[in-house]
């Protein structure tokens, strides 16, 4: 049985539902879902330039969990940019 997921502290949400290549209808694109916790991890690590420990503390999770979340988020963003896929934001 898996451990229950610890609630994450998320301070912001995406201003839009998706980010996609210009000029291509959303219906024609493959979609990748970026979770709210992944967007928050990107914001803290890359926009605010916090260390993993400081960012994890802000989110109320362990440093290892933060590292896993930010790694997943960066992979999704890279995949979206390289393959021209739509990034769909989880709007909690």
Automatic annotation (TrEMBL):
Family: Belongs to the UPF0251 family.
HAMAP family: UPF0251 (MF_00674)
Protein name as it appears in the record: UPF0251 protein TW81_16085
Residues annotated as signal peptide: none
Domain of life of the native organism: Bacteria
Organism: Vibrio galatheae
Pfam family for this entry, one: DUF134
């Amino acid at each position: 049985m898996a451990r229950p997921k610890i609630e994450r502290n998320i301070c912001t949400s995406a201003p839009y539902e998706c980010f996609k290549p210009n000029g291509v209808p959303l219906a024609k694109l493959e979609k990748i879902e970026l979770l709210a916790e992944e967007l928050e991890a990107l914001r803290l690590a890359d926009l605010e330039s916090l260390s993993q420990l400081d960012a994890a503390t802000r989110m109320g999770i362990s440093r290892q969990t933060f590292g896993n979340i930010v790694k997943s988020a960066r992979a999704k963003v890279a995949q979206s940019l390289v393959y021209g896929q739509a990034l769909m934001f989880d709007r909690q």
